[in-house]
Protein 1
Amino acid sequence: LLQLEALDQIDQLEAAIRRLGPQGGGYAWSGLIGRGLLRGMPRDPAGIPYDLDPATGRVRVAAASPLSPMPHETEQIQ
């Protein structure tokens, strides 16, 4: 269930990131926090900060999270 919650959060974060677009040629949590989109570093339901790809704006559960790998990631590995 925590993975499903993380997927919902990721969808919301990526939608907000798309609306604002990159800042300074890329994406960074600090830019989103500075622009008032976020109050702080977004964390998954296990309390681990999400990874943000600076080139694409894609959000992922960190490899160090107990929620990793996510269901769609295990399908890609096989």
Note: Strands lie at 51-52, 59-60.
Protein 2
Amino acid sequence: MKKSTNKSKPLFIFYLLVAYVFVQFGWWSYLMVQQTNEIHAQKAQLIVLKLTEASQIFSEQQKLEMDLHRRWWMISGEGSVFLVLMILGISRVQKTFKAQTALANLQKNFLLSVTHELKSPIASAKLLLQTLHKRDLPKEQQKEIISNAIDDADRLDNLVENILLATNIENNLFVLHKEKINFSDLLEELVQKLSTLYKTHTFEKNSAPEIFFSADKMALSSIVLNLVENAVKYSPEKSTIFIVLVQKGNQIIFSVKDEGVGISDTEKEKIFNKFYRVGNENTRKTKGTGLGLYIVKNLVDQHSGIISVKNNFPKGSILEVTFDV
């Protein structure tokens, strides 16, 4: 309860200041109108005192009335412009404040996620190495432990690579080094690696042979790995991840289908935002940093490709990337 109060305090102060500004604006408007009316009344008295002929008094009073109306319009015009600018300014400040608050929450969640993502493989690798160090195990068990420790090291390596890549993308430091790549062979290597890394899922690959594409090999690998890892995170264990690579005319289409929770229409545009994670609190308990799809979207854009999100009936999602050859 205390945390919620602390978060709402700056917003309360902001609204208090807004209320004060509107009260002051109203008071300023009242004083301006009152002062204008008083000046008009004094001028009207002077006209009566100075002039003797009724026609002259009437003529001057008409001029005075016209001047009064002109001043009223001037006050109304200036006040309206000021009011519109003030409302626009307040609206912009409010949106910025909410956006900064949302970003701060996303960054906080990101730090918590990264901490968890780092601690888990480190703790696992440490335990495996301690077991290997303290016990005299058969050779087969040693190989299994070493293999598991390598898998944990790979998870750490992928996480660090994603963080560095996201930082370089955000700071416009990432530069593509394109070369002609056999996408089919690269996908075969990556799927084998993923099958070893994620033994909880089944991977079904459907790839046409000898599909070549001019791309940055590291970036293309990152696109594949992040899309598949995203599917693994948001689909149940023992489910199948379908990986498809085809070429249709001058287009290469790569897609990843899962049988997971799916992505609602309202979230389909948001999932590519930095730190954003899909779903309700239950699905957000899955591992992840919210960087994977952000990285994918940026790398696809840099290759002049298009990424789209589709529903995988009866359940799950399809993330499809299209490149022009």
Note: Helices lie at 2-50, 54-134, 139-170, 183-197, 217-233, 292-302.
